[in-house]
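Table S2 (text version). Query chain:
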Amino acid sequence: MEARTSIIEKRLSSINRIIAVASGKGGVGKSLVASTLALNLVKNGKKVGLLDLDLYGPSSHIILDIHDVFPKEDYGIIPPTMHGINFMSVVYFTEDKPAPFRGIDITNIIIELLAITQWGELDYLIIDLPPGIGEETLDIIRFIKKAEFLVISTPSKVALAAVDKLIKILQEMKLPTIGIIENMVHQPSSLIKKSMKQYNIRYLGQLLYDSTIENNLGFPNKLVKTNFAKELDNLMNSFLYQSP
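Corresponding structure-token output:
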């Protein structure tokens, strides 16, 4: 294990910024934000990688219609490029079958993916984290020293309770946090914005509920033209393009 962990930093050394998209719980649109963020960055002329580390529910390949393309082996593995995105996912390990991973298996898969993937030079690597604050998130924190965290929530008391726990862990470990995005907003609410003030976490803004999204999943060229993608792009222009 030591040999693999020692090479992770080298694999990531030519990446300018690593954005880990996190959420306190599932169902808040984290994977959609991560995938659309990658598309938007490509549209804006950036060299982008997307790593789907959601071991229990990987979905970026579905959102982006990535299928029948596989990594190539060359002193490690080179991610396939689709829609301008260098793409790697746990589905290449699980073959998109149910995978009841536990304990050390989870850590080993994450280490393996990070150690063998040759990303090369990238402006951004977007990581779609598993929801919650389990071992997977803690492993990312351990192995990816330069990750910046982008937190996704919805205007829900249940989602906020889970986000509070995630934010507390990020702050206790003094990890760089870009801020929080409030997703799937049906009507104006100050719930999330007010809560983040107590943590001094930057509230990046709202993404309004977009009823067209479901019909555009699996069609990246259409997805990037939705109001959802445009609103996310506006948030990126304000925050993610700034130097950390």
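Notes on Table S2: The chain has a mean pLDDT of 88. Residues 213 and 226 are 7 Å apart (CA to CA).
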